[in-house]
């Protein structure tokens, strides 16, 4: 066994055992009857399960996750079974003064809302993304997942588009697209009409395999990268259409005004590629940061009420990723960072800025030193008006976290649904990821590079307008003079 696997095994053997037993029970207990296969796929193959497992486990669990995905050979549920009771599911589209507007109706509860745009670096318009040239009553388009898991439920956001996800390799010739997660020499593209799609939800640092031999091999990538038509991020930002915009109050001032604590950091990996732990350690010298997690004294298991302290106690949420890679933003920011009454702090502005609401976060690399960052955070704690300005975006924007539990309209602009849409385009659009090794394998900063620059004050930084504003500088300086 490799050292990683052994470490992983030692740390998580009990959990693994419980998971294995639960899995077997679900699979074989007769009381679950014929519904079982769908349950199983739902539990193990939507994108989030893999995310969550990765979040909760230490080390490099993706090996394990992917192995189980690869070994999966559950039955495929025909679309007719899935569309039962779903007649009214097709989200209506409407026009607003000639502008395309889309109604999002979250299955997981909550009011429907209308959007007019989504924040992405991809240049397809919202209307293009949400318009599929599908035909009914003909053979569905087929996405074959070669060794990348997933199943029909992943098309839940676009059941009306007539596509299928299959995992039977003998369907290679019929497939319009094939998704692969690991190199497999036995896979041969049928012809140039068939899309070959790379699947990875991990950052290139942790995905392990760079496929340097596969230059110009992939057409699309299904993962967090936005610069591919099959992008499938962990969350996204929408611009609300006028009918869904909000007026103040935009945050709960009863909660926010009672906050007393500095920042919270929830962490399971103790040491990371980004060396974010070194930045947090330095920040702690100047600013109170409570650290929760596997290798720390404070504990707060995921999805338990103690997480509410993010709404009630803490002013800032440390949302540092384990690696600094192009477009790599995980649930840390999309879920805890934006779905709480809290301001997220990220490492690098340029990575998140294209995808998140304006003035919604604090970036460490805007500051020339950690003490300067600490002063700014202390100032915001002392001035609740300035603090509250970080929620102004909520009037016009909304952040959607794709938690993978509900395959609904929120997934329609992304991932599987977009592959489905592309499979129906005629003539087939050409998409090629040129020089995959460059595109994927070289899309991360070297380990600890940013942390080193931040800690030595050598970030080539163009401080954000906000922090550089002379009036604000004076205010922060005044505040710090009076509160040494
Ligand atoms: C999007 O960008 C690609 C490449 O830069 C270009 O070929 C394509 O025409 C653009 N599409 C739109 C809708 O602008
Ligand atoms: C508090 O913040 C508000 C809004 O940014 C600003 O107008 C005000 O001058 C600040 N007050 C102090 C005492 O710095
Ligand atoms: C897919 O990629 C291959 C290899 O680069 C290319 O030859 C083919 O034309 C592409 N097919 C489509 C449909 O984009």
TrEMBL record:
Mind telling me what this protein is named?
A: Fucosyltransferase
* Source lineage: Eukaryota, Metazoa, Ecdysozoa, Nematoda, Chromadorea
Q: Which SUPFAM superfamilies match?
A: UDP-Glycosyltransferase/glycogen phosphorylase (SSF53756)
Q: Could you say which protein family the record assigns here?
A: Belongs to the glycosyltransferase 10 family.
User: In this protein, which residues make up the domain named Fucosyltransferase C-terminal?
Assistant: 257-439
EC numbers listed for it are: 2.4.1.-
Q: What InterPro entries does UniProt report for this protein, alphabetically? A: Glyco_tran_10_C, Glyco_tran_10_N, Glyco_trans_10, GT10-like_C_sf
Give the keywords, sorted: Glycoprotein, Glycosyltransferase, Golgi apparatus, Membrane, Signal-anchor, Transferase, Transmembrane, Transmembrane helix
